[in-house]
Specification:
The structure holds 2 protein chains of 2 kinds.
Chain A: H1 14-36, H2 52-59, H3 61-92, H4 101-113, H5 116-134, H6 140-164, H7 168-175, H8 180-209, H9 212-217, H10 225-233, H11 239-266
Helix pairs in contact in A: 1-11, 2-11, 3-6, 3-8, 4-6, 6-8, 7-8, 8-11
Chain B: H1 3-44, E1 47-49, E2 55-60, H2 63-69, E3 70-72, E4 79-81, H3 83-115, H4 119-134, H5 137-148, H6 153-160, H7 174-198, H8 202-210, H9 215-226, H10 228-243, H11 247-253, H12 260-268, H13 274-299
Helix pairs in contact in B: 2-13, 3-7, 3-10, 4-7, 5-7, 5-11, 7-10, 7-11, 8-9, 10-13, 12-13
The chains are: A mainly alpha, B mainly alpha.
Membrane topology (chain A): Multi-pass membrane protein
Function (chain A): Required for the activity of the bacterial periplasmic transport system of putrescine and spermidine.
Protein name (chain A): Spermidine/putrescine transport system permease protein PotC
């Protein structure tokens, strides 16, 4: 296409605004990363390039504990949510509509509809009562709460994949006298694997990122990395917070990139 | 009914039963840790507040609900409007509205620009919007803080350019809330808009030009009406989380510029008024539901001209 031809798709100024949008999207993140390599004691001045705050964060036992707790909760929640979502997806796809199916959709997607702060205080109300009644105040509450809001995210890609898959291979397996379990184990599940992995990773990132619900559900001494950071932001911050944020950022970006490529291969 | 039909009906019944069993774990978890607690909260909003937080179980009162909107005068015991609460609710609605407008102003041209790139580059642009979207909300809020604080990038740049002599106080103002929310929720506007513009039938645009429309007329009379469902979807996706924002105003707005989410938290913390907090949460949910109904009614209309 020659430049002189009238481009019907072009609109004046849109390219400039797009440039500004991307600049605005990435500049704050870049600033955060750059300042994590700040050698100075505080964020208000630049003290030369240094990785001292990464070392400080790595050796900070509160950060270590919070990071491990975050990972444990995310692994449990994403694992449980993926299994539950896989089962639910099998139950709600590839069937003639039946009574209660709409209700199921509504329930499964409910965590997406309600503002997080509302769910958070509702959980605070219920769990604080249960904590008193049972005397148990372990990580179970956090895992349960996280699993609930992770389910819709794990459900989405699995359901999409199931709906686009045809039944031919499964019918063939059934024709060859495979039991329902065998068909699922050797035919359906392998075909579903990319979607299951994608669902698990989405759920994992969502759980890892959660601040609000965790902040309200956690008992004393159960800080995850995000709630630890939120607590630190109240006081004068040092570049240590930047260092933690940078590592966190790198981790979730890697996960998103992997997710992107899994999804792309599928097409 | 003959035998075969009966067998088919029985098989179908069996199938539905096993489908319920299969979905049971997901439904149970969501009921226990998401839906159920909302009903408990509704009950709590009608109870008498406890002396040190919590409620007095089984003692009912409308106090929680009336104090969302009204307060008793401490001198003559008359009921007046609860100005503090109402102004925070009103501020939340206003800020969410302006956030939606700002994200649309930036998001629409961006989405349009991306959607009119060649297919293989489109994917990369979309991916670049997705990365900040999946980045932790707290980290993005904190990143925004690095830009707008007194010794931050923005003030340093403006001072270096000689435009201002002393730093602008942006942190702990409503502007900080607005900038933070716009930054954080911008991808939520771009993505649905992109999905909608990508499906736009550009033959209609061409027809507009054939009829001597200007660029602006094409945009206003053809493109925008056709992608309206995308605009509505993006607006709702931005408006709803803005209304319930908690982290952003807490970090950027500080104590003076609370939003509804922070007001709710306060009732469960230092306020020690759980029924009031519960009633406020339900008020927030009602506001969100109103926005959703508006969305559903609008989304069902329009959208013609998509291929």
């Amino acid at each position: 296409m020659s430049r002189s031809r009238f481009d019907i798709r072009a609109q004046p100024g849109f390219g400039f605004i797009t440039l500004f949008t991307f600049f605005a999207l990435y500049l704050p993140i870049a600033a955060l990363v750059v300042y994590s390599f700040n050698g100075a004691e505080s964020l208000s001045q630049w003290g030369g390039f240094s990785s001292r705050w990464f070392v400080a964060a790595w050796q900070n036992s509160a950060v270590q504990d919070a990071a491990i707790r975050s990972l444990v909760i995310a692994l449990w929640a994403a694992g449980l949510a993926t299994v539950a979502a896989l089962m639910a997806a099998l139950a709600t796809t590839r069937t003639a509509p039946y009574r209660g199916q709409t209700l199921k959709y509504a329930l499964i997607n409910q965590p997406l509809m309600v503002p997080e702060i509302v769910t958070a205080v509702a959980l605070l109300i219920v769990f604080s009562r249960i904590k008193v009644w049972t005397g148990y105040s372990g990580l179970g509450y956090l895992v349960l709460a996280h699993t609930a809001f992770c389910i819709p995210f794990a459900y989405l890609p699995i359901r999409a994949r199931l709906e686009s898959m045809d039944l031919t291979l499964e019918r063939a397996a059934a024709d060859l006298y495979a039991t329902r379990w065998k068909t699922f184990r050797h035919v359906t599940l392998p075909l579903l694997r990319p979607a299951v992995i994608a669902g698990f990773m989405l759920a994992f990132v969502i759980s890892l990122d959660d601040v609000v619900i965790t902040e309200f559900v956690k008992s004393g001494g159960q800080d995850t990395l995000p709630t630890y950071m939120l607590g630190q932001l109240r006081r004068e911050t040092t570049p240590e917070i930047n260092a933690i944020a940078t590592v966190f950022l790198a981790l979730s970006t890697v996960l998103v990139v992997i997710f992107f490529f899994i999804n792309r291969k599928k097409q | 009914m003959n035998g075969a039909e009966q067998a088919a009906a029985a098989a179908r019944k069996q199938d539905i039963r096993s489908r319920w069993l299969l979905s049971a774990p997901a439904l149970l978890i969501i009921f226990v840790a998401a839906v159920g607690p909302l009903f408990v909260m509704l009950l709590y909003s009608f109870m008498v507040k406890g002396d040190y937080g919590d409620v007095k179980l089984g003692e009912f009162s409308l106090e929680g609900w009336t104090s969302v909107f009204f307060q008793r005068d401490i001198f003559d015991d008359t009921l007046g409007l609860a100005d503090a609460h109402l102004s925070i609710i009103w501020r939340s609605i206003q800020l969410s509205f302006f956030t939606t407008v700002l994200t649309a102003i930036l998001g629409f041209p961006t989405a349009y620009f991306i959607a009119t790139r060649p297919p293989h580059t489109r994917e990369i642009w979309v991916f670049l919007v997705t990365i900040p979207f999946w980045t932790n909300l707290l980290i993005r809020t904190f990143a925004m803080q690095q830009v707008i604080r007194n010794e931050g990038l923005l003030n340093n740049a403006l001072m270096w350019l000689g435009l201002i002599k002393s730093p602008l106080q942006i942190m702990y103002t409503d502007t900080a809330n607005l900038l933070g929310m716009t930054y954080v929720y911008l991808p939520l506007m771009v993505l649905p808009l992109y999905a909608s513009i990508e499906k736009l039938d550009f033959r209609l645009v061409e027809a507009g030009y054939d009829l001597y429309a200007t660029r602006f007329q094409v945009l206003r009379r053809i493109v925008i009406p056709l992608v309206r469902p995308g605009i509505v979807a993006g607006s709702i996706l931005v408006f709803i989380p803005s209304l319930g924002a908690y982290v952003i105003p807490r970090v950027l707005g500080g104590g003076k510029n609370m939003m509804l989410g922070n007001l709710i938290e306060m009732q469960f913390g230092s306020g020690r008024n759980w029924p009031l907090g519960a009633a406020m949460s339900i008020t927030l949910m009602v506001l969100v539901t109103v926005a959703l109904i508006f969305y559903v009614r609008n989304a069902s209309r329009g959208g013609a001209g998509h291929v």
